[in-house]
Amino acid sequence: MLLLPAPPRTLLLNASLEPLCVVALPRAVTLVMSGKATVLESDGRVLHSEHVAVPLPVVLSLTRYVHVPMRRPLPPTRRTVLQRDDHRCAYCGSHADTVDHVHPRSRGGRHEWGNVVAACRRCNHRKADHLLHEIGWELRWTPSAPRGATAFLRGAAVDEPAWSPYLAA
User: Fold this and answer.
1) Of residues 47 and 168, which shows the higher confidence score?
2) Sign of the C-alpha dihedral computed for residues 37, 39, 41 and 46 taken in this order
């Protein structure tokens, strides 16, 4: 019998089906067993104990609505900027592995979503601390802060195909 690894995390939705967070499998099973959540999506496998069988949860929904206070904006980090820009260089479009400040910090630029883009090492090195108009470059897109409930989830999650209908913004 071939055992596939269990999904390390489960998407937890509010009773209104809005994404709340990503939880570890043991926490997901505890929520289901205590009646606080129901399994919306499973990968077909079942977790067994002596008296109970529970479908392996991939997506859960709370049974009661939980009010969530307004979240603080997600800060631009290397990981979140690369995810927002899909690991594509904002200058040439190739694979990006670093981040760059469009208006360099050495010239008064701020570390905020509208000023930070993903960049390949070559473009980042060539641009250095120059302004775009000084070297005749243009951005391929305008950087902005990620919006919607998925902004805080993307960093926590390995792409799980079953999550996509629930994360659509």
Assistant:
1) 47
2) positive
